[in-house]
Design brief:
This protein is of the alpha/beta class. The chain has helices spanning 10-21, 46-53, 68-77, 93-96, 119-125, 160-184, 216-225, 292-298, and strands at residues 2-7, 25-30, 35-36, 42-43, 58-59, 81-85, 103-107, 115-116, 130-137, 147-154, 199-200, 232-236, 239-249, 260-263, 268-271, 276-284, 290-291. It folds into two domains: 2-200, 3-Layer(aba) Sandwich (Rossmann fold); 205-298, Formyl transferase, C-terminal domain (Methionyl-tRNA Fmet Formyltransferase, Chain A, domain 2). It is 27% helix and 27% strand. The strands form four sheets. It has a seven-stranded mixed sheet, with helices on both faces. Helix 1 links the parallel strand 1 and strand 2 (25-30). Helix 1 (10-21) runs parallel beside helix 2. It is elongated and about 65 Å long.
């Protein structure tokens, strides 16, 4: 079977690796353009790295629906199937109609719940104990196509990185099990119930900001959901502080949201709109990520010090 693969992050690379291992003919991989990192160094997507390592040709459209040459190129390949996993762009009808067996997507949620761009982060933000992956036949709507197969996964207490790893592995295995059924015509297609749909939109940098007005549990989930980007962050004396690990205390707040309630040698406690958070790991602007103990050795904190807006409180 000839497959064109489309995807970008590590979540997608797991599925691509499985297709390579299973011996499918993959003449082309389509991924997002390289981006510039520190010191202008070009950063390749995890999918592109894997494709290059395996000698697979790649294409990197800025917007595939406005790239007729690429669409024509895909058509000329004549793929039996297009497999998409966290590609980051919506496919136009002209692409969806190319493969003989259609286009399928490895989606990181149990559809119709959490359609959209950030289902795994949303699952953590919502405090779900379970999520999973769905293999769906792609349609023109946003994750609205018929479902083919699902796998439920336990994600209780995990951060986004951990959820992504678990769901990536599950998605790759489910993909490998599902493709033969699509090929031989035994796959069953289930229409999604739109009345049960929920959405996980695009995450923006500002979504990571916290003034600590929210409940402690909600902020702790935000820390886990945004651990890779944009991070859950606030400001202390005009400097940004990103939080990477915290735990909810069974205590009522005893001061204003954002105010330091207490300190130990290894952690410090912040009042929230409801409850308290014990901070265990963070990163001060211009510094490396470090434990709360190391942070406090270089930056003395005292009860009453307050995290909040950049311009100060």
């Amino acid at each position: 079977m000839k497959i064109v693969f489309m995807g970008t992050p590590a979540f997608a690379a797991c599925s691509l690796q499985k297709l390579i291992d299973d011996g499918y003919d993959i003449p082309l991989v389509v991924t997002q353009p390289d981006r510039r990192g520190n010191r202008n160094k070009m950063i390749l997507s995890e999918v592109k790295k894997l494709a290059v390592e395996n000698g697979i040709e790649t294409a990197q459209p800025v917007r595939i629906k406005k790239d007729p040459e690429l669409i024509e190129r895909i058509a000329s390949i004549g793929p039996d199937l297009i497999v998409v996993a966290a590609f980051g762009q919506i496919l136009p009808k002209s692409v969806l109609e190319i493969p003989r067996l259609g286009c399928i997507n490895v989606h990181g949620s149990l559809l119709p719940k959490l359609r959209g761009a950030s289902p795994m982060q949303a699952a953590v933000l919502e405090g779900l104990d379970e999520s999973g992956v769905t293999i769906m036949r792609m349609a023109e709507g946003l994750d609205t196509g018929d479902m083919i197969s699902k796998r439920v996964c336990d994600i209780k207490g995990m951060d986004f990185t951990e959820v992504s790893e678990v769901l990536a592995a599950a998605g790759a295995e489910l993909l490998a099990e599902t493709i033969p059924h699509i090929a031989d015509g035994t796959a069953e297609y289930e229409v999604q119930d739109d009345s049960e749909a929920s959405y996980a939109g695009i995450i923006r940098k500002t979504d990571g900001y916290t003034s600590f007005d929210e409940d402690a549990e909600a902020i702790e989930r935000k820390i886990r959901a945004f651990i890779e980007w944009p991070s859950c962050y606030s400001y202390l004396e005009g400097l940004q502080v990103k939080f990477y690990k915290a735990e909810v205390l069974d205590e009522e707040a005893d001061g204003a949201p954002g105010a330091v309630s207490g300190t130990t040698k290894t952690s410090y406690t912040i009042n929230c709109g409801r409850g308290k958070l014990r901070i265990l790991e963070q990163q001060l602007q211009g510094k490396k990520r470090m434990s709360a103990g190391d942070f406090m050795r270089g930056h003395k904190l005292a009860p009453g010090d307050r995290f909040g807006a950049e311009e100060g409180l």
